[in-house]
Amino acid sequence: xxxxxxxxxxxxxxxxxxxxxxxxxxxxxxxxxxxxxxxxxxxxxxxxxxxxxxxxxxxxxxxxxxxxxxxxxxxxxxxxxxxxxxxxxxxxxxxxxxxxxxxxxxxxxxxxxxxxxxxxxxxxxxxxxxxxxxxxxxxxxxxxxxxxxxxxxxxxxxxxxxxxxxxxxxxxxxxxxx
Length: 178
Fold this sequence. Notes:
By secondary structure, the protein is α+β, with helices and mostly antiparallel strands. The chain is built from five helices and eight strands, in the order βαββαβαβαββαβ. Strands 2-3-1-4-6-7-5-8 form an eight-stranded antiparallel beta sheet, sandwiched between helices. α1 (16-29) crosses α2 (57-65). The chain starts with a strand and ends in a 9-residue tail after the last strand.
């Protein structure tokens, strides 16, 4: 199962790689494999996606033991990409969109909508949709894109009639997941 670990990140650390390594180590000690890390200074967040056969409590316990704060460790579903491709790419997005999902939206309805709307991204060829992580509790999803600027990402979201709760550039120097 995939889990999303969200941590606040203000970018003030002189060397944030040490903090990211601590999160990676805590996850690995729980038996998880770090799949990717996305950091958005604009959103003040670091997002870690890990794969683990087992409950998230193991990761949460290791994060607490390492004295690492986190917003949540939530199961997510990968949409729009194959896990093997994501593991090979290990990041690579330019923009991250958070969408706080409506409470009435079900996973099945979300997936049907995504399938129906995805071809409309072709109307904004300068933007490439990469993948989405949808929280299994349907609170929100994270969508990753490549594009020239925030305005282009907004046009892509408008093309697929999907709102943006938060949008931020992803730091181009991402922590290593290897």
